[in-house]
Design brief:
By secondary structure, the chain is an alpha/beta fold. The protein is about 65% helix and about 10% strand. It has two domains: about 35-370, ABC transporter type 1, transmembrane domain (ABC transporter transmembrane region fold); about 380-465 and about 595-635, P-loop containing nucleotide triphosphate hydrolases (Rossmann fold, 3-Layer(aba) Sandwich), CATH 3.40.50.300.
């Protein structure tokens, strides 16, 4: 009774040890675990196939060991009399009819039959292993699609203010490493399930053969567990530090590539290279340390069983001393089962190591999927149809950070429909902040913005944004054709619509000179086009949208005089009968605006027409004289 109790306790401890990591993803409330549970409910047939194939694989392995035992017993049985006496092995539990049939069977046909059965069982085991890998691969593929889609949706669901707080390299790392982390987890859990079932199969065989010899196997498992308890926390800590270093390095390289023009212009290429090299050395040191830790478990797991088998072989005569003819089959089967169990324990140890190594990636995945400490873009609201009367700012304030000074402070103005409103002022005065509020990139921290007397905060934001046309100094083009860039966001547009928009934006001339015309690929961020050409493509995109409000954020400030003249001509033709907000760098481009607002330190200090403001002779007049003097100096 005591022996059976100790055996049951050992099996329970091993079951908890193996089942714990299997059940953790289905018990945790972290986003990654919830995703696994949701996918598991949807793909329950795959999981059922995986579990069934794992059980068949374990059964086939156990049955194979039993057949090997019978074959060895047959070879060692004395000639004459009964071929086998299975009654000597009550702990193995051979059925009575099987014992009688085997005892009367001829030796040679029985041996060949046992060999055939062993081969059939191994084929069945191989097929089960194949089905197991296919089912877990299908499940992992579904989970990878789900998590990659979810990460992309999560990044797009963040408000612009929240998303802009992340580095581009961090977001790319989330999108790239999250699915890999999920795939690693699923593969590891599947291996843990299969090898755990096989481990219990071997334990059952070893218990049936000799419970005393199993003490050696238990000691081996205990030693491996102790080694893991020492190494796994260090592996998890090293994995987190390694992940942080990899993300930092990836972000730095991404920023260097994005800022190549700046690095070249300021002669900072060598400095950037040194910085990356220092981070590379740090990453190499962490990687080496992690390699030492993760590589330590496998050799230990290999050495301990050899020692255990040597001790078991020496003590086997004492354990099987009462059964002279059964020593060879029992010992050989025991050693084979123990050796195969050791292989499974080595795999399980490696799985625990991979799960620990993967823990930092899972934590990063949970970090981006968790809604905590994140601000999401506004959903719902009243759909926007058309601009009927105009736009009004009422005492609007904006702070980008809680502790930072306000970018806007008590701004109030009105932009009637069909009018052109220009914003002028020095850099950092708050002009672009007004445009950011109108486009919905940020929400005001005070006051309100009214669209036809409807608070912008109550409008359905996408329906408002889709009726805007924005042309800014920093034009973004996708690595696609000119036609695709112009028609972006306008799925209804025909080829003729795109050509008409390009013509109105003064872009048809240079497009016609390109070998592939509108089908020309513009390259990453439009690098194959000049600044003026990019601006005209951006303007064509805005024209095609037929916007209710056109926002020009210093659209010509970085252009040469010829490009500026072409863009300005296109803008002036399109501005007629349009509601336009212009952020002006060159004051000469907004002399015909209906209203000009002079912005200083987040406040409107002057407003009026060009002639009225010049007549007042204060802030705007000073800016006009300064710019006029610089232009005369350059021309002279």
């Amino acid at each position: 009774m005591i022996r059976n109790s100790s055996h049951s306790s050992l099996l329970r401890r091993l079951a908890r040890r193996i089942a714990g990591p299997l059940l953790l993803p289905f018990a945790s409330q972290q986003p990654a675990a919830r995703l696994l549970r949701s996918t598991a409910r949807q793909q329950w047939k795959l999981l059922a196939l995986n579990l069934g194939s794992s059980l068949v694989e374990a059964f086939s392995e156990g049955a194979t060991l039993a057949v090997i035992f019978l074959a060895l017993e047959l070879l060692s049985a004395p000639s004459g009399g009964a071929v086998l006496n299975l009654g000597r092995y009550p702990s193995i539990g051979f059925p009575g009819p099987l014992q009688e049939a085997v005892a009367q069977a001829p030796r040679t046909p029985l041996f060949l039959s046992l060999l055939t059965l062993a081969v059939v069982l191994q084929v069945l085991m191989s097929l089960s292993a194949y089905l197991n890998q296919v089912s877990v691969g299908y499940f992992a593929a579904r989970c990878m699609v789900s998590v990659k889609t979810l990460i992309h949706q999560r990044i797009l669901a963040l408000s612009y203010a929240c998303a802009s707080g992340y580095r581009v390299g961090d977001l790319l790392n989330y999108a790239g490493q999250g699915p890999v982390a999920i795939n690693t987890t699923i593969t590891a859990l599947s291996q843990l399930l299969v090898n755990g079932l096989l481990l219990f199969t071997y334990l059952g065989v070893l218990l049936a053969l000799s419970p005393w010899l199993l003490v050696g196997a238990a000691a081996m498992a205990l030693l491996i567990t102790l080694v893991q308890k020492q190494l796994l926390p260090r592996i998890r800590d090293g994995s987190q530090r390694l992940t942080v270093s990899q993300v930092r390095l990836g972000s730095r390289i991404t920023e260097d590539i994005q800022g190549l023009r700046l690095l070249h212009s300021l002669g900072q290429l060598e400095a950037a290279d040194r910085t990356v090299l220092d981070q590379m050395h740090e990453l190499e040191a962490l990687q080496r340390r992690q390699t030492r830790l993760t590589s330590a478990i496998s050799p230990i797991a290999r050495v301990l069983p050899v020692l255990a088998i040597a001790v078991i072989a020496a003590l086997s005569l004492l354990a099987f001393g009462g059964r002279v003819t059964g020593v060879l089959p029992s010992l050989a089967t025991f050693v084979l089962a123990l050796q195969r169990m050791n292989m499974r324990m080595e795999v399980i140890a490696g799985v625990f190591t991979r799960l620990s190594n993967n823990s930092a990636s899972i934590e990063r995945l949970n970090e981006i999927l968790s809604p905590a400490c994140k601000e999401f873009r506004r959903l719902g609201g009243v759909p926007f149809r058309a601009l009927e009367r105009g736009i009004r700012f009422e005492d609007v304030s904006l702070c980008y950070e809680p502790d930072s000074p306000p970018a806007l402070d008590g701004v109030s103005f009105t932009l009637p429909k069909g009018h052109t409103l220009a914003l002028v002022g020095t850099s950092g005065a708050g002009k672009s902040s007004i445009a950011d509020l109108l486009t919905g990139l940020y929400a005001p921290t005070g006051g309100r913005i009214l669209i036809d007397e409807q608070d912008l905060a109550t409008l359905h934001l996408p329906s408002w944004q889709q009726r805007l046309g924005v042309v800014s100094q920093d034009t973004f083009l996708f690595n696609a054709s000119l036609a695709e860039n112009i028609a972006f966001g306008c799925g209804w547009a025909t080829r003729a619509d795109v050509q008409a928009a390009a013509a109105r934006a003064q872009a048809a001339g240079f497009i016609a000179e390109l070998p592939q015309g509108l089908d020309t690929l513009v390259g990453e961020r439009g690098y194959r086009l000049s600044g003026g050409q990019r601006q005209r493509i951006s303007l064509a995109r805005a024209i095609l949208r037929n916007p209710e409000l056109l926002i020009l954020d210093e659209a010509t400030s970085a252009l040469d005089s010829q490009s500026e003249r072409l863009v300005q001509q296109a803008i002036e033709q399109f501005e007629r009968q349009r509601t336009v907000l212009v952020i002006a760098h060159r004051l000469s481009t907004i002399v015909n605006a209906d209203t000009i607002l002079v912005v200083e330190r987040g406040r409107i200090v002057e407003q009026g027409s060009h002639a009225e403001l010049l007549g007042q002779g204060v802030a705007y007049a000073g800016l006009w004289r300064q710019q006029l003097g610089r232009e005369q100096a350059v021309s002279g």
